[in-house]
């Protein structure tokens, strides 16, 4: 079964081709990573997957639903099953940690505060944070902790699909590897399907089942970590060499 299926996706904005003839599938429970240089179309693909952008042409199916055929209320219902981790965590500065985690329920339901605090505790535990952070504000957290809270918020509605946008961006190498382990742990504990957009190739080769390499809005190659690492495609070889540097020797050995 596929959680996401994209066929011949093209997106043109003001005469500029953003994405061209993109096709790929993401299997249920898979960690599928999208890599490429700045402006290659990584985040543009995720905007199409969550229905923020409509394709100029092509087809996008998410969790068995054809996005183009959905009415607004149906699209909103589908989005409940998709968690999104923003690049900078995008927490609300004026809300406490627990309020950030259960923000969807605060906005959309009348569930009581005790129930929501307990839900926040449950989700924070999954990302390795304890009750001591519940009443803190985002400004009182480290970058890595803010990222974890962002992930806890993304899984608060028990989504079937989670999209990580540059999950290790702005983090030191040690914290980045901890976030990698968290992504793997969440998949192991929940079976959730993950799409990861990243420029961090060490992260990509640590967590991915398969990797898709983009260049200027086009797919260059899709493959397992091994297939990408030992690719014969000139662009991919150069991209991996430049992106991994000394780490390439470790991964290749």
TrEMBL record:
GO terms for molecular function: ATP binding; ATP hydrolysis activity. SUPFAM superfamilies: P-loop containing nucleoside triphosphate hydrolases. Residues 4-241 form the ABC transporter domain. InterPro entries: AAA+_ATPase, ABC_transporter-like_ATP-bd, ABC_transporter-like_CS, P-loop_NTPase. Keywords: ATP-binding, Nucleotide-binding, Transport. SMART domains: AAA. This is Phospholipid/cholesterol/gamma-HCH transport system ATP-binding protein.
